[in-house]
Amino acid sequence: MVKQVVNQSAMHQLLKGKNGGVARQALIRGVKVQTQARRNLGGGTGSGPKRVDTGLLRASIAVQLRTWGAGDIAVRVGTNVRYALWIHEGTGIYGPKHTPIVPKRARYLRFKPKGLEKYLYRRSVKGMKPNPFLVAALPAAKINDAGNL
Predict the structure, then answer these.
(1) How far, in Å, are 21, 24, 63 from residue 13 at the CA level?
(2) What is the per-residue pLDDT across 42-67, written as a single tens digit (0 to 9) for each?
(3) Would you place residue 102 in the very low, low, confident or very high pLDDT band (cuts 50, 70, 90)?
(4) What DSSP assignment string belongs to the chain?
(5) Pairing state of beta strands 120-122 and 109-111?
(6) How many angstroms separate the CA atoms of 110 and 50, rounded?
(7) Which of 59, 49, 137 is nearest to 94 (CA)?
(8) 12-40 pLDDT, tens per residue?
(9) Quick check: 58 and 51 in contact, CB under 8 A?
């Protein structure tokens, strides 16, 4: 007869501890999502639209290991940059409201596009198409058919 004793403390640490195997795997997957999200933003290195001015948004995408309740583990991948939602969801007719961008107090919108010396005046603009860089990066966390990350 074989008697097996489970070390409950070690099992708890493996499954729910911040330094356990589950947390390590979650962080590895989070970093993969972070890397893909940065690629999705485009610019000089990515496959997304070439709308990178300073690279602030791309650099701000961070990974955090979170625990709550009875030690449940999750990884959060995201950014705190204010305009990230506008890039992700789109604006104007392409955004959630599906309406053109119009001035609030003036008759015309006034803006200087990148590369032009003079200002343009418009009664409305269409807006910007969405680039769902975070949602599109989620498949990077999956395990492939061979069982590898």
Answers:
(1) 9, 12, 21
(2) 765 545 556 677 889 999 999 999 88
(3) very high
(4) -------HHHHHHHHHSTTSHHHHHHHHHHHHHHHHHHHHT-TTSSSS-S--SSSHHHHH-EEEEEEETTTEEEEEEE---TTHHHHHH--GGGSTT---B--SSSSSEEE--TT-SS-EEES-B-------TTGGGGGGGS--TTS--
(5) antiparallel
(6) 23
(7) 49
(8) 777 777 778 888 899 999 999 999 999 99
(9) no
Tokens of 43: 């610019």
Nearest to residue 75, comparing CAs of 28, 12, 20, 17? 28
> Can you tell me the distance from the alpha carbon of 73 to that of 20, in angstroms, rounded to the nearest whole number?
10
Closest among 72, 74, 73, 76 to 64, alpha carbons compared: 76
Instruction: Tell if the pTM clears 0.70, that is, is over it.
Output: yes
* Residue for token pair 């604006």: 91
Asked whether the beta carbons of 23 and 65 are under 8 A apart, the reply is yes
CA–CA distance, 5 with 33 (Å, rounded to integer): 38
Tokens of 10: 């070690």
